[in-house]
UniProtKB/TrEMBL annotation:
Cited InterPro entries: DUF2513
Organism: Buttiauxella selenatireducens
Protein name per the record: DUF2513 domain-containing protein
Length: 138
């Protein structure tokens, strides 16, 4: 399965838009992300791998339990965006960053996406600082 950048961004926004500091798979389902969908599982694993989300108790996983010979099952666990997760979605919410990622980095790996978004956001911020103040931060 390949990374669906729009799905990934929308999933992070669903975490960020939660009314409380944490959310769970049932709340995410209400926002259109069905935890029984393989795409959900795939992207949640990527987010966890990159430490962008985690359980609020600090334990590994996001509530999915493998089953021998069966489809597995979920436990509803409180989940949150980590500081890195908030930074990543903040970067992706910047129109210049998102446009550049979508147009030029369609096949990027997950770790590359995080790094690229951060570098682009910093680059655009430096350009804005120079434009507003005349000061070149480089």
């Amino acid at each position: 399965m390949k990374i669906n950048q729009q799905y990934l961004k929308d999933l992070l926004i669903a975490f960020e838009d939660a009314p409380n500091p944490d959310t769970d798979i049932t709340e995410l389902k209400e926002r259109g992300f069905d935890y029984m969908d393989p795409e959900f599982m795939f992207h949640m694993r990527l987010l966890e791998d990159q430490y962008l989300i985690q359980r609020t108790d600090g334990q590994p996983g996001f509530g999915f339990y493998e089953s021998l010979g069966g489809p597995g099952s979920y436990a509803v666990m409180p989940l949150r965006l980590t500081a890195q997760g908030h930074d990543f979605i903040a970067d992706l919410r910047q129109q210049e960053v998102w446009s550049t990622v979508k147009e030029n980095f369609k096949e990027a790996s997950m770790s590359s996406l995080v790094d690229i978004a951060k570098q682009l956001a910093q680059g655009f911020a430096k350009q804005k600082i120079k434009q507003l103040t005349g000061f070149d931060p480089d």
